[in-house]
Amino acid sequence: MNAPFQPDTTSLDLLKVGTKARVAAIDWAALEESEACRLRHFGFDEGVTVEPLHLGPFGRDPMEVSPDEEIVRAVQAQTGSAEVFGAPFWTDAALFTDAGIPAILFGPRGDGAHAAVEWVELASVERCRDLYVAVAAEFCR
Known about the structure:
disordered N terminus, 141 residues, two-stranded antiparallel ribbon, 2 domains
């Protein structure tokens, strides 16, 4: 939902619990098919009024982990890459960071997460397996 901001508008992610708002625009083309399908299933469309009653999987706070955390450094050491970047979706990893346990997202290459057709590259699954074992071994020293 990366629509340009207009006066008196906000992102649904920033809408406070108990505040009613009308959905002004949804950039359907910018969404993955599975995400668009899920939003339509729940009745999201332009012009509807929404009121978040609680924070759930669609409205959780973003997670952030310092690049100085041991888990980040361990993965960087094993991959040989210092690259750190965010993801535009919520995952269970945020539950760990909310509990004070540093967590990262690192998985195989693929596409179609949670869609009817979901796939990963086998070579990247094997690479992830090797990385998970190496990082776990480093943590267990």
